[in-house]
Amino acid sequence: MCVTIETRHGDRGVLWGLVLVAAGALLLLGSLDIVVFPWHVLAGPAVLGIPGLIFAQVFVGNRDQWWAIIPGGVLLTLAAIAFIDGLLPGLDTGWLFFLGLAITFGLVWRETGHAQQWARVVAVVCLALSGVTLFGSLLRFVIPLALLGAGVYLLSGRGRLQ
């Protein structure tokens, strides 16, 4: 069974009402020890994610409000990072931050009909930073080893500079 919720202006109260009732019910069940769940895993993501969803709703409600994609995307990215850090502490999530920003600014560029060219530049830079951060541990060794190898090659006499 699939439930569809209309998101016209009058129905936003119903949608957010359902979200708040569900959150309240889960918290109450947790307080009564009926449902055991690591609530600390959801606390940070909820604090960041709920405002992010509100900004997303602003954009969905009025496509001319493209600026709402930026705070919505940043907050939802931070919520995802907080959730992953809560579930898997110690996992490096720096790359995920830049990936979330790349997606956010890519959406700004796409949703404005490519009118905001600066957003494409930011998206590409953030995507590159995500890749560098993700593979940073590998680059940490590759670059020094390449420099050492080039230096040894030059010192060996084979690569004499003239």
The backbone outline, from C-alpha atoms, is: flat
Give the total of beta strands.
Answer: 0
Q: Give the mean pLDDT.
A: 84
Helix content: over 70%
Helix/strand-derived class? mainly alpha
Features:
mainly alpha, 162 residues, disordered N terminus
Folded structure, characterized:
This protein has 162 residues and is mainly α. The chain has six helices and no strands. The longest helix has 22 residues, at 40-61. The radius of gyration is 23 Å and the shape is flat.
Short description:
By secondary structure, this protein is mainly α.
Topology:
Layout: H1 12-31, H2 40-61, H3 69-87, H4 94-111, H5 117-134, H6 136-155
